[in-house]
Write a structure and sequence with these properties.
The protein is an alpha+beta fold. The protein has 5 helices and 17 strands.
């Protein structure tokens, strides 16, 4: 999703000290450590509905050089029409100052307190560092910020809003499974942590392999081929693209019955995967969560979510059973659970996820997940994919590339819980995306 940023000049506001200083609030003046931008709502596919959305960018290395090695940032905006006012609007609360050896910087979206009808040239703001989240707002008569407009700060940091790894992405061409558009969608700030009690982790990915090159609409066969490559299966094929000898993705594609240029229904995905495993005599154990359907209608009577076979007559020996994570029983679950996803990755099993977003334009995608970490209570997944699906000698609009036009074959996404209680990718470049299906496989006993 495109999200143009307008860099704005700001001045760090120091409210007049009319009482005794309190050293627990330390103001930050270094604009290389903390900077601000305004989101432009006039650009195509912007996430900003108006001129009242901004972005704060933190440089944790610079903050460390300035002596800020931990704690939380508090940001207050002051009304420019009242330059001597002591009271400020608390627009950002309790942003953790992270260790720069773990993450060099981060950004967060916020809403301006003072309404803007267009681009702003400057706005007065105060940035403060505190050791721990504050209790009720400080009283007048000190040089601490005061906030009469909002309730007391929460005891834990508020939900973070992660900026997409590639805000320039618009679509993924035609590479999508046949999934219906989500019945609802949410703003990024409505997607909350999966588990706010989890400490941040720094796990390495299970593999650094490159994804197979895919044809248009071949993301589902491609994600399965990548997973089988990670497992090192002996199927007589390699992770070569379709059209080359012994192409694994071509074999999986044929087993799924994918039609050229069209998305693959989720029931075809899992049954085709099982068909390929049985055809090749692979000794694998397959699990899943989610509802798998022959069309994009999740209410189709032919949808399956319990034990699923390969659809053969007779069926092959290897079937897929519902994963047990998250308290899911033998009858499966309509939507997948975080405990299944993390449990399979903890066991070093290969995992594919499929997800959908509302847009515009709406879309869906399947990828291999190669690892996860906890970050501020969210699941930070590492995924691999062919971001372009087709010829790669040009980069037309809509392909997944970074600012230097390098394909995003490997990228992070952050997963939280939507108001519906389901798993949502908060920072998918095309907008928040609902995870609908998870499939894993491993050797017996793996």
């Amino acid at each position: 999703m495109a999200a143009a940023l307008l860099c704005v000049a700001f001045f760090l506001w120091l409210p007049p000290a009319t009482g005794q200083s309190n050293p627990t609030w330390v103001q930050i003046f270094d604009q290389q450590a903390v900077s601000f931008s305004q989101l432009d709502p006039t650009t195509p596919d912007t996430i900003a509905p108006d001129w009242n959305q901004g972005v704060i960018t933190m440089n944790y290395q610079q903050l460390l050089m300035d002596g800020f090695s931990g704690g939380y940032l508090q940001v207050l905006e002051f009304n420019p029409s009242e330059p001597t006012a002591e009271d400020g609007a608390w627009i950002l609360q309790n942003i953790p100052i992270m260790d720069p050896s773990f993450i060099g910087g981060d950004s967060a979206v916020f809403t301006f307190a003072v309404h803007n009808s267009g681009p702003v040239g400057t706005f007065p703001v105060g940035v403060y560092a505190v050791v721990k989240p504050p209790a009720p707002a400080p009283a007048r008569g000190t040089n601490q910020p005061k906030q009469p407009m909002l309730p007391p700060a929460p005891k834990a940091p508020p939900p973070r809003v992660f900026v997409p790894a590639n805000p320039k992405q618009v679509t993924i061409g035609q590479g999508m499974p046949a999934l219906a558009t989500p019945p609802v969608t949410y703003r990024p700030d409505q997607i909350l942590p999966v588990d706010a009690t989890q400490a941040d982790t720094k796990n390495a990915p299970l593999t650094n392999q490159n994804p197979v090159a895919e044809l248009p609409s071949q993301c589902a066969p491609g994600s399965v081929a990548n997973s089988l490559t990670y497992l090192g299966v002996n199927d007589g094929n390699t992770n070569a693209p379709s059209g080359q000898p012994n192409s694994r993705v071509a074999g999986v594609d044929a087993a799924m019955g994918r039609q050229a240029g069209k998305g693959t229904p989720t029931l075809n995905i899992i049954q085709g995967k099982l068909m390929y495993i049985n055809q090749k005599g692979l000794k694998l154990v397959v699990h899943h969560q989610g509802r798998f359907c022959p069309t994009n209608n999740i209410n189709d009577q032919k949808c399956q979510q319990g034990t699923i076979d390969d659809g053969g007559n007779p069926p092959g020996a290897v079937t897929s059973t519902p994963g047990a994570g998250g308290g899911v029983g033998n009858n499966g679950t309509l939507m997948p659970k975080a405990a299944f996803l993390t449990g399979e990755l903890d066991n070093k099993e290969d995992v594919e996820i499929c997800f959908r977003w509302a847009g515009p334009p709406p879309g869906a995608h399947c990828v291999q997940t190669t690892g996860y970490n906890w970050e501020s209570g969210y699941l930070r997944l590492t995924i691999i994919q062919d971001p372009n699906q087709g010829p790669t000698n040009t980069v037309p609009g809509g392909r997944m590339v970074d600012a230097a036009k390098v394909p995003l074959a490997r990228m992070p996404v952050h997963v939280g819980l939507g108001p519906d209680g389901n798993l949502w990718i908060q920072d998918w470049p095309a907008g928040p995306a609902q995870i609908t299906n998870i499939i894993s496989e491993s050797p017996p006993g793996g």
